[in-house]
């Protein structure tokens, strides 16, 4: 006779209380307060501005120390502000002849740069496209351009004065001949660097010359083109300051030359600050336009 045994489960004294399953909630972004967002933006701004501000402050202090000596030939920053206070606080002064505020001198120079630079952009891009597309044109014109582009800008000024017999068009021509070469060369390089696959696709799709220009050539060349335009605007601003020293009239270049003849070194330093700031803004403006039009592919 077999007796069946009954197994009874006993509670384990070492086991802990039953663990409740944690409730699962969908991940959601942690709300960011206005103060923390403002603090984050402020920290970013400080990180961007602190290095250049500290560098400029260090250079000014160093300049002040070096120029404080009685034997120093150059004025210190505080002496520059004291000597040139009138032209610093009155940039919009309207006087007679060349007795104008610095704003009007810079404006006159920018107008000359604008005329010469726009003309250089039109000619440089047009001829650059021709050189990039035509091997025959490249072989014929490239040696000539390589020689012409090595001539210093001011070397063209006597020739332009003899041709135009007037300072205004002569200065515009000097700006044009200075800035056209980087635009032309970079445009032609961009055209030649168009991948052969793109050209094959254009042939397969039987694109017309206008469609090839707008759909393939322009998108592939614009980054190179804006590199040349950016170099060209910098060279234009350098050339106009030098050219205006010789042609005279209202302009930041002649203002510097007139201050030198009057031994106003502090006025020259203030004008150089204007020249540097305006040149920087011109460069950043062309870079920003290129970055916008090329959707970030152009260097900024």
From TrEMBL:
UniProt KW keywords? Cell inner membrane, Cell membrane, Ion transport, Membrane, Transmembrane, Transmembrane helix, Transport
- One Pfam family linked to the record: BPD_transp_1
| Entry annotated with the keyword Transmembrane | yes
NCBIfam families reported in the protein's UniProt record = ntrB
Concerning its family, UniProt says: Belongs to the binding-protein-dependent transport system permease family.
This protein's species is: Microvirga terrae
- Localization in the cell: Cell inner membrane; Cell membrane
Report the transmembrane regions from the record.
49-66, 114-132, 144-164, 170-189, 235-257, 263-282
Gene encoding the protein: ntrB
Membrane topology, as annotated = Multi-pass membrane protein
Keyword Phosphoprotein listed: no
What the entry lists under Gene3D superfamilies is as follows: MetI-like
Main location per the UniProt record: membrane
PROSITE patterns, alphabetically?
A: ABC_TM1
Identification of the protein by name: Nitrate ABC transporter permease
> What region holds the ABC transmembrane type-1 domain?
106-283
Tell me where on the tree of life, at the top rank, the source sits: Bacteria
